[in-house]
Amino acid sequence: MPRLERLFKTQAIILRRFDYGEADRILTLLTADHGKLRAIAKGARKLTSRLNGHLELYSRAALLIAHGHELHVISQAEQQEAFLPLHSDLMRSAYAHHIAELTDRFSEHEEAQTPFFNLLNAALGWLCAPEADLALIARYFELRLLHLSGFAPSLFECAIGQEPLTARDQFFSAAEGGAICPEHARGYAVQPLSLDALKVLRYMARTDYESVRHLRLSPALHAELDRTLSHYLLHLLEQRLKSAEFVRQLRARLL
């Protein structure tokens, strides 16, 4: 992408942040037009700072940023959307952390990825809806993020034989990149994939969220979708997502 201007404006979502020094914060941002950036907000923890309250986790803000070599510097910030339910509800916060961690892992530094920004911004809003199925949102987000990243799993054709998959139970192979028919599954590292799970994955892959959100899935089907996509993400990232483990532990305790 073109070299960043010395001073530039952008919309950003705060993916991560940690305290630095006596009053500063270092943030990982996903911006609308400059990709992922690391920036420092000097004095942001001071109560008198003009930045205080405008750089909360998972919020969207309009920023004025000064270009830096190792870290950019946030000069001005104005919060645009706080996504407040993500901070007052532990389960929603856990899912927000999960999709933010996924975005962080798949996005590139200083590479314009506007579709990533739009997807994350929309998903944070979906998580705030009072009757939202949080697990369904997470699976939909994972599948759409995989598509945007060029890693969409094969769901309509056998990942080995390339023939169309018929309406029956199949298998899934992370290493081969998707669903595999029983005839080609022997000799590969696979896990079962029920016809119902395959149907839901296909529906989510080709349907917008406004339609997907009306799905009502059984706990068993939710668990199978989670296992399938988590297995695939683990293969791609070569590391377990701490946020996903925390969500599972939290659901086991609260639901």
From TrEMBL:
Q: Which family does it belong to?
A: Belongs to the RecO family.
Q: Does the keyword Electron transport apply?
A: no
Q: Which Pfam families has this protein been placed in?
A: RecO_C, RecO_N
Please report the stretch or stretches of sequence annotated as the DNA replication/recombination mediator RecO N-terminal domain: 7-81
Output the lineage of the source organism.
Bacteria, Bacillati, Chloroflexota, Candidatus Thermofontia, Candidatus Thermofonsia Clade 1
A cellular-component GO term for this protein? bacterial nucleoid
Q: What is this protein called?
A: DNA repair protein RecO
Protein keywords: DNA damage, DNA recombination, DNA repair
- Function, please? Involved in DNA repair and RecF pathway recombination.
Query: Is Lipoprotein one of the keywords UniProt gives this record?
Result: no
NCBIfam families in UniProt: reco
Superkingdom, taxonomy of origin: Bacteria
The record's Gene Ontology biological-process terms are: DNA recombination; double-strand break repair
Matches recorded under InterPro entries: ARFGAP/RecO, DNA_rep/recomb_RecO_N, NA-bd_OB-fold, RecO, RecO_C
Gene name, Swiss-Prot/TrEMBL: recO
